[in-house]
Each structure stands twice: as structure tokens, then as C-alpha cells.
Amino acid sequence: MAGPTTAERGTRQQSKSGPPGPPRRPLLRRLRPPRPRLPRGRALLVLLAGTALLAGGGAWLLYGSQWLRVDRVTVSGARVLTADEVRTAAAVPVGSPLISVDTGLIEERLRQKLPRIDSVDVVRSWPQGIGLKVVERVPVLIVEKGGKFIEVDADGVRFATVSEPPKGVPTLELAAGGSPSLRRFGTDRLVLAAVRVAGDLPAGVARDTLNIKVRSYDSLSLELNGGRTIDWGSSEKGEAKRATLTALMKAAPKARHFDVSVPTAPASSGS
């Protein structure tokens, strides 16, 4: 008679030993003590206290420490103005916390006290510096008055009075007198018209220009070195007049007078 099969023997052995129990955990894991946990409220207090300490330390570093206070003021971009003039007008509060310096107020102060400054950028240079980056106005015309010379920039702003005229800058002569243009447009508009003409001149002509005379809004003329003159007319159609004048001067290099007031019908005369 055949004996029990392998499956039967396994079933008998299992019934003798009983059902399998849960898997045993490693002894080391069973002996490890549970980690202590802070109550939720206490953990929040600890977090808030740490945050407050960090914030307080940062505030002290920015406002209370000696490491981040204004120690030097540098100036860049000044050409006619001196660095000392710019620093004096800026009145940067040396010794104050760098973070507390009002850069906008300093910029406004510089533009008010020094009209020669066209734009200025006040920047913090960590850890202890303030930088003043200056852009000065450039004169394109000068107006003689009472033995002095008033400088006028490309926007028509009369920004400085000097004893000596800057080299290479034409003189603006306002000869409108009692013309209707003066009453209608005012001096500022006539000055802007002259500034516009100065900006439209060919480079070579601009270098040779000594004087721009404004008789009215529609009548501007130029005096060049060598006794040459140009009737420009109004300040309109500047690009066309520049091209016409360039061609006219090439065609009649020995001419003494040029008329481009009507750029489609130019004329030259004299030799």
C-alpha cells in the first residue's frame, strides 16, 4: 500500500505545529525606545522664537551694527563739476545705516542744487558705500548776456552761466525783437527752434558754425567761419535741408552764401 504523498505530509506537519503567527520584528527594533515628541503648541512656540531671533539679528545687523554704515561716497561721470561739488550737494548722511539712506531724496537734491546734472543714479555699494553716477548736460548753444555766457542743452534748457564760452559751441542770437513770432511763440519756442537747427546740421557744418541768429520762427540763419552764411528758414524739414546743404556745398565749394530755406529750390551765391 502506498505511503502519504508529499502534500499530505506537509498538511499533517502544519496541523501539528498550529497556524503560522505574525512575522517576528527584529530584537533591536523592539528594544528601541520611542522618540519623544513635543506637544504641538510648544513646537510652534519654538519655531516662532527662532524666527524672532533671526529677524532681530538681521535688523540689528542692518541698523545697529557698525559693519553696514555709510563710510564712503564715490562720484562717477562728472566732467565739468568736481567730485567734491557733487558730494557736497548730495549731503549723504555718512555714518548712518546704509539701508536707511533715502536714495530718491539724494537724487532730487542733486538735480535741484546742480542744474548742470541731467540725470543721476544713487546706488548702495555694500557693505559701506554710496555711489553717485552723474550724467551732465552738454551745451549745444550759448547765449551771451552781460559779459557772461548761458549754456543751453539739446532740450532747450538753460542750465548754467559761465565766464568763458565753451569751445566749439555756437552763439545763439535772439533778434526777434518785436516780431509777431516772439509774441506768438515766446522766447522758449524760439530757443528750441535754434536748438533743433543746430542738431540737424551736417557734422562738418556744425563744427564750422559760429552763430545761429533767430529773427522769427520762420527765419533762422547761420554764420560760419570764413565769412560764409546760410539761410535755413524755419526749423522744419531739417533732414531734407541737411541733405540739400551737403549737396549744394559740394556743387559750389567756393560759394559764400547758401539758401536752403526751401530745400526743393536751393541757391548759392558769391565766390
Tell me what the structure shows.
- This protein has helices at residues 6-17, 27-31, 40-64, 83-90, 103-113, 180-200, 203-208, 238-251; strands at residues 72-76, 117-125, 129-136, 141-145, 148-152, 158-162, 171-174, 209-216, 219-224, 229-233, 257-259, 267-269.
- Mean pLDDT is 84; it is low at 6-17.
- It has 271 residues and is of the alpha/beta class.
- The termini are far apart.
- The strands form three sheets. The chain has a six-stranded mixed β-sheet with strand order 7-8-9-10-11-12. Strands 1-3-2 form a three-stranded mixed β-sheet.
- The protein is built from eight helices and twelve strands.
- It is elongated and about 105 Å long.
Topology:
Blueprint: H1 6-17, H2 27-31, H3 40-64, E1 72-76, H4 83-90, H5 103-113, E2 117-125, E3 129-136, E4 141-145, E5 148-152, E6 158-162, E7 171-174, H6 180-200, H7 203-208, E8 209-216, E9 219-224, E10 229-233, H8 238-251, E11 257-259, E12 267-269
Parallel strand pairs: 1-3, 7-8, 10-11
Antiparallel strand pairs: 2-3, 4-5, 5-6, 8-9, 9-10, 11-12
Question: Number of folding domains?
Answer: 2
Q: Total strand count, please? A: 12
Give helix and strand order, one letter per element, not per position.
Answer: HHHEHHEEEEEEHHEEEHEE
Q: How many DSSP helices?
A: 8
Head-to-tail CA distance between termini: 148 Å
Which class of the largest domain in CATH terms?
A: Alpha Beta
Strand content: 15-25%
The proportion of residues forming helix, as a percent range, comes to: 25-40%
Strand order of the largest sheet: 7-8-9-10-11-12
Whole-number mean pLDDT: 84
Largest sheet: 6 strands, mixed
In CATH, the topology of the largest domain is named Rossmann fold
**Which geometry do the CA atoms define?**
elongated
Query: What is the rounded Rg?
Result: 42 Å
Named at the architecture level, the CATH assignment of the largest domain is: 3-Layer(aba) Sandwich
Structure classification = alpha/beta
Outline the low-pLDDT stretches.
Answer: 6-17
